[in-house]
Description:
By secondary structure, chain A is an alpha/beta fold.
Amino acid sequence: MEQKIVIKNLKDVPILSMSLQSTVWNQTGNWRYLRPSYVTLRAPCSKACPIEQDISFYLTSLADGKPEAAWQKMVEANPLPSICGRVCHHPCEADCNRRDYDESLAINVLERFLGDWGMKEGKLNGLPGDKRDEKVAIIGSGPAGLSCAYFLARRGYGVKIFEAMNDPGGMLRYGIPAYRLPRKILNAEIARIESCGVEFETGKRFGKDFGLPDLKAYAAVFLATGAHAEQKPKIPGDDLKGVWHGLAFLKEINAGRRLSVGKKVIVVGGGNTAIDSARVARRLGSKVTVLYRRAKEDMPAIPGEVEEAGKEGVEFVFNAVPVKISGKSGKVQAVEFVRTKPGKPDGSGRRAPVPIKGSNFSLKADSLILAVGERADLSFLPEGMKTGKGLIAIDSWGRTNLSGIFAGGDVATGEGYVSQAIASGKKTAWAIDRFLRGERTDPRENSAEVVRLEKINLDYFPPAARAKVPALPVKARAGGFKEVHGGLSSLKARQEAERCFSCGNCIRCNVCLMVCPDVAISFNENNNEYLIDYDHCKGCGICSVECPRSAMTLEEERWNE
Amino acid sequence: MERVISGNEAVAYGAMLSRVQVIPAYPISPQTTIVETLSDFCASGLLKADFVKVESEHSAMACCVGAASAGARTFTATSAQGLALMHEVLHWAAGARLPIVMANVNRAMSAPWTMWCDQGDSLAQRDTGWMQFYCEDNQEVLDTIIMAYRISEKVLLPSMVCLDGFILSHTYEQVEVPDIHEVDRYLPAFVPKFKLDTADPHSFSAAFLPDIYMEQRMKVQQAMEEAKSVATAVDQEFGQAFGRSYGMMEEYSVEDADVLLVTTGTVTGTARVVVDEYRKKGEKVGLLKMKMFRPFPTEDVRRVLQQVRKVAVVDRNISFGATGIFAQEIRSVLQHHGEGTSVFGFIAGLGGRDVTPAVLKEIVEYAKGKEAPEGDIAWIGVKP
């Protein structure tokens, strides 16, 4: 700028044009009419996850060979990763952007990998620095109760869980069979929650052994007693020996009792309890047929579980309901069914099954397991507590109509999946904390845009096959409760994690930095962030367009504002 | 060490021995195996270079410009339409005085679709400011790549090393691959005088106003003139170091020739056989092999041709609406300097048609049988 170049003769003419001085003074950023910036958008998996885990973050850490960081991030959001990694219905995978590209990420088994990694390494949650004076009582030690306890303990509250059964875990222990969730995994997860300072008192039934007046020392109570009341359709002959109700049957088995169900077992129902009962009966050596009143696609059971049941030899008959159970010497001998067809839509939006006259048929059976649904048991509720639709009535915070009494999980939501119960417990822990601090504002919804496949720059992602989850050969499953699915090796887990698009989340891949023609992007190692030099960014937009995962935006520059 | 390698592998070995640092390249037949071999060299660690996969030849050359501006020894390779796609950036590389070396595997231009050899592709780029060297065999290809870096880095102009598609690119020959440490001594690392450096930012290639643009062009021309002696010296030094040298042109049995063939590329090898046969019969036929086309070795060519009465230029190209390009150049060289020399312009071997000894004999006989050319072009071997 200061030096004027004067060229008088041919000798002075340079062979090429190059400025003599630095060009940093030339703030080409003022040519910009588009402004790139970094954003964090929502990955569809995180949005689909009931507990909104930052899946992209922990998969990226795993892919980077940092399982510790991945585990830490995971347990910030998920109190029971090794359990979820086995029994979650994983809506994250159904919504994974990669599903529409090649195959969705095997998120569920990676969750399991990380949970098990932490368990193997003996990782414990860090304890909060600030202890709070208030204590909270939690009724029920199923996933909702454990989750609520975990998040309250991590906020510094004293927490005690009261459990009616002899061992904690609720449906995790008494509903889900060991071949899906080995007891040592369940025990280890509960032990980790205990290590956060949570106390357990088992064998104490709320509403019978104690009640609200006994909980005066607690500043808040969370009711999470689950859905243990089985629906029992009235069928002639249901008092015969050999007629079971699904949950009761599973509870017996899961409490360690070996039952004899005979050679031929019929299971009625299409939910997870029905499928679990069928697979358990199969393991006891019986021939098993599941009959469901609607079509296969209407089954509320997790599809993968239905598939495994099929592999194990469980047979299915659809569109049939039981009408009569016949027996001999007080014992079940056969069940009579009538075929159904779809009628008008019912409350669930599905078409209600309508019996077809004269289509009755009969199947021989030594046992019949009726597993047509569970409801919340509301018989124990304290006086004056409001209910509705067969559930404890709660507001968006999880508050019941009684001050300081909260409720969640299946007893209050009726949702049914483990991860939903964990979400309910987590959300209520947040609400109890707010309540005890006297805060009243409602939670802010995460309104960030969800990144869909069209926003992913697929040029950066070569197709790659999804990791295969190892499974026990069907022959090896019979006669025992060995876990059916295996985990991934470290190498396989890392390779699978590398498939993650990390939708809407910057993973410091350096593409923006490399493609910037103005060298206007730098990386700050101190805070692990990119910095855009807006004095020299001309707003060409290449960084934002190239960003493989839509973690940059390009917006109109508003110089006047 | 001796290896039996294809012309394309010879190119890759030449680049590897030159320790090129950046290779932005896009595949095109018949050049593809150059890119593949270099990519293998990079993958195996034999060559420590940044191999940049690009989406087109235009990007390849643009990337070369960037890398060379940052001071890296830069290499790429292409053919035909790929070279044509680079056209705009070729001017930039030369004007910015970047010593890039590129192999062009000569392939005829389309349409109609073709993959076979002629030299129309590289000759169409004659005015871009690139030096051009045409090779006769695989050994010369390998050696010329190395020499091209010496020449380019001295005069600061890019070099195009040309080899005939398939005839060299896919033909295996015995080639002496020099020891890399000897090549290191012959071709030291490039130390650029000016380079892009983010720590010390300068503006490059900004506008020259009309008051000095012309002078800058003159300097390019001066560099081209300088390249003639530089190339000759580099070639001689190569001979001292490795025992092989080629000259920027080669006179073969030129003494008292009645008819002198002028050839380039692989036609030269065939012409040597034909000339030997004529000489054996006592007929005075000679050969001038043109290796360097840009800069054109005007003085040397003029010196040789002034002694000859009939010159038969074999052009494996055609400048539509004019003549064969070598014939044009040679006619202009002789203007006012060779009144006694008749220049016969022959077009042969377009689009991969073989130029056999019989074709060359037909050319010689044609020139022998006529006092002077009947026109500017004689098409050889075309259907009646």
